[in-house]
Amino acid sequence: MLNDCDTRRLAQIALVVLLIVGCIAVLLPFVGALLFALIIWVCSWESYRDHLLPRLGGRDSLGASLMVVLLIVVLLVPTIFLAGALVSGADHVIELVRPYFEEGLPAEPPAWFASIPLFADEIIDFWHEVASSREALNALLVQGIAPARQFLLAAGAVAANGMLQLALVLFVVFFLYRDGEVVATALYGGARKLGGELGEGLVDKARGTVFGVMLGIVGTAAAQGSVAMIGFFIAGAPAPVLLGFATFFLSMIPVGPPLVWGGAALWLYGDGQTGWAIFMALYGLLIISSIDNVVKPLLMARGAGLSVLIVALGVFGGVLVFGFIGIFLGPVLLALGQLLLTRWLREESPS
């Protein structure tokens, strides 16, 4: 039989569990934004505390406001310009393909189709079939309208959700900068209570890993954007500076840069510059996109003090499990696991 003391204790435990579950349920839709705000704060807190805050006389609210304004300039303003450029590019693509909708395809495909390896004959035969029959062209267009409409709707939803998430990130990161000392003290205090010296080591390891991953992502984006801008200038693509910035931002996602240099190659081909279009496609495939496979793991590993294998497995596995935020969570989890395993093996091994 349970006495009154045991019953009271069980009730207290049940209330605590319900409170934790309720907090998780409330915060769950915003986990991605909260973690991203925390990542930005972790990567920039020391520089903000040691350099900007003393120049402002220690005024936390003013410093936090300036950091939010800086983030708006860095994240939001280029995104708006990029969206405008994409709309303009879409108008150009529509003008480019409109004659094919109105007049049909030419009887013969472009000559360079014959140089496509493995599938040249099939592609040419399909072109002849579609070009010779208006019904076949209409059927092909109808098949492409539904997926294109779904893609545009999905892209619009993603863009709207991204803007809302970004607004939430800016809102949260203001309070992280303003109350940064309190947050840092709470993190290290909680880690010290839970794990002592090991807990503090875990916090330091997580902070170093997050900084290394951010360094790898931003460094790779800068390298890809710079190299892409050079290629756009060489090929004579329109607005090469804007396309370079688009490559920088879209390099955060795996298929981002090909959308930019591939679109530039299509524009060059539609403008009658077939040679430069082929150059742009090869340059993007062999140089721009290859940077992501070489520079990013090296920068992440060097910044986080981890092996390239741990970083690569953490990034790919984290993305598969958690989505975009898994780029940061995956390496952090593996780094903490490696630290715990190393500590356990060191304690278990004879002195």
TrEMBL record:
It is a multi-pass membrane protein. Pfam families: AI-2E_transport (PF01594). It comes from the Bacteria. The keyword Coiled coil does not apply. Keywords: Cell membrane, Membrane, Transmembrane, Transmembrane helix, Transport. It is found in: Cell membrane. The keyword Zinc does not apply. The chain crosses the membrane at residues 12-42, 62-88, 151-177, 210-234, 241-269, 275-295, 307-336. Belongs to the autoinducer-2 exporter (AI-2E) (TC 2.A.86) family. This is AI-2E family transporter. The lineage of its organism: Bacteria, Pseudomonadati, Pseudomonadota, Betaproteobacteria, Rhodocyclales.
